[in-house]
TrEMBL record:
Gene Ontology biological process terms from the UniProt entry: cellular respiration; small molecule metabolic process
Taxonomy of the source species: Bacteria, Pseudomonadati, Pseudomonadota, Betaproteobacteria, Burkholderiales
Entry keyword set: Oxidoreductase
Pfam families membership: TPP_enzyme_C
Domain Thiamine pyrophosphate enzyme TPP-binding, chain residue ranges per copy: 66-214
Keyword hit for Oxidoreductase: yes
Record GO terms (molecular function): 2-oxoglutarate synthase activity; thiamine pyrophosphate binding
UniProt source species: Inhella inkyongensis
EC numbers, comma separated: 1.2.7.11, 1.2.7.3
Protein name as it appears in the record: 2-oxoglutarate ferredoxin oxidoreductase subunit beta
Signal sequence region: none
Domain of life per record: Bacteria
Top EC class of this enzyme: oxidoreductase
PANTHER family in the record: 2-OXOGLUTARATE OXIDOREDUCTASE SUBUNIT KORB-RELATED (PTHR48084), BLR6744 PROTEIN (PTHR48084:SF5)
InterPro entries from the UniProt entry: 2-oxoacid:Fd_oxidoreductase (IPR051457), THDP-binding (IPR029061), TPP_enzyme_TPP-bd (IPR011766)
Length: 351
């Protein structure tokens, strides 16, 4: 992977967060993506979310597949654990790592080609099993790395840079994630950091399968008239359903109600999501309502964004499998070898 290292020097007066790190500690190498690529804005949003949530970088495991989007974990959280896997295989690698050590925060970064083409089966099973992770797809409607072929998320009828028409139906990842059982489903836009950072923070505190589809224009191959993933098209058709004011459970935390209805949704870790409704008909606590709103707006050519659905009570993979608390490599001999009597009981149950 090509990269340019950043100078390691930090100014001593840089502000530190509650766990003693500066914002620079959450950065990575200098990006080699095209200037203006939406993916770089998403990396910046991830850096901001982790710094503001006081997550120690070494408590994060960032994993990806192959693509311009999958290169981005190199450009943030350089002190975190990381794996750049095979094309489309991030979810299974992440699932295995999570089962071995549930104490880390797992961040999966993928592309629309990586997750909706070769990795569609992997995406589906991570969602339906409730793998506790933040799954971000940097969705530009093309295979950016291999020079702009339509990806499966490209809208039917959208045009390529050279004028070809996409004749295939689009895979809508948020609708799929909802149907498959993801318990936190959101859509953001790389050009709206004010909306995106709280969506990522909410996902990081969720504790279950949290999926965020981030529309992220490819300036090299999909930012022209006739594309439905260009900056201009997305700005014109972006329908924000709500705004999150994410608030940790801290004594000084206060919600700031403004225009619209304010919903307070408790998360698994005891924190609260404060959600301001911008679309009267949308109820983010109902899976069916979320599907209906998304389909209705998308049929009108609009792009619903915001927190589309959340189920804070959902059980994740570790709870379903009754996994022991903590990392498996921390289990002592007594836990790993419970003795002959226990073995006899297990064998008897199998006879
Ligand atoms: C097994 C395999 N098949 C195909 C490729 C070629 N390939 C590399 S990246 C890519 C698609 C990337 O598209 P996407 O995931 O949307 O990422 P983007 O570059 O658009 O961010 C493909 C098909 C590969 N590297 N490995
Ligand atoms: S080719 Fe597209 S997706 Fe890849 S870095 Fe350039 S703008 Fe971004
Ligand atoms: Mg892509």
């Amino acid at each position: 992977m090509t990269y340019i290292a950043k100078p390691a020097l930090h100014h001593p007066t840089l502000t530190k967060n509650k766990v003693g790190y500066t914002r620079r500690d959450y950065e990575g190498r200098i990006s080699t993506l095209c200037a203006g690529c939406g993916h770089d804005s998403i990396s910046a949003a991830i850096i901001q979310a982790c710094w503001e949530l006081d997550i120690a970088p070494h408590r994060v495991a960032k994993m990806s597949g192959i693509g311009c989007s999958s290169k981005t974990p190199d450009y943030f959280l350089s002190a975190s654990h990381g794996l750049n896997s095979v094309h489309g295989r991030m979810p299974s690698c992440l699932t295995g790592a999570s089962l071995a050590n549930r104490e880390l925060l797992y961040l999966g970064v993928s592309g629309d080609g990586d997750s909706a083409s070769i990795g569609l089966g992997q995406f589906a099973h991570a969602m339906r099993r409730g793998v506790p992770m933040v799954y971000i797809v940097e969705n530009n409607g093309v295979y950016g790395l291999t020079k702009g072929q339509f990806s499966p998320t490209a809208d039917k009828g959208s045009q390529s840079k050279k004028g070809a028409m996409n004749i295939d139906s689009a895979v809508d990842l948020v609708s799929l994630a909802l149907q498959l059982g993801a318990s936190y489903v959101a859509r953001g836009f790389s050009g709206d950091k004010a909306q995106l950072v709280p969506l990522i923070k909410g996902a990081m505190r969720h504790g279950g399968a949290a999926f965020i589809d981030v529309i992220s224009p490819c300036v090299a191959f999909n930012n022209h008239a006739g594309s439905t993933r260009s900056y201009d098209h997305v700005r014109e058709h972006n329908q924000a359903l709500n705004r999150i004011d994410f608030i940790d459970l801290a004594p000084e935390a206060k919600a700031e109600p403004g225009a619209g209805e304010l919903l307070s949704l408790p998360q698994a870790d005891g924190s609260l999501l404060h959600l301001r409704k911008l679309h009267a008909a949308h109820d983010p606590t109902s899976r069916l309502a979320a599907m209906t709103t998304i389909q209705t707006l998308q049929q009108q050519g609009e792009l619903p964004t915001g927190l589309l659905y959340v189920d804070a009570q959902a059980r994740n993979l570790h709870q379903q499998l009754k996994m022991v608390p903590g990392a498996l490599n921390a289990l002592d001999e007594a836990a790993l070898c419970p003795g002959g009597a226990q073995l006899e009981r297990i064998n008897a149950a199998l006879r």
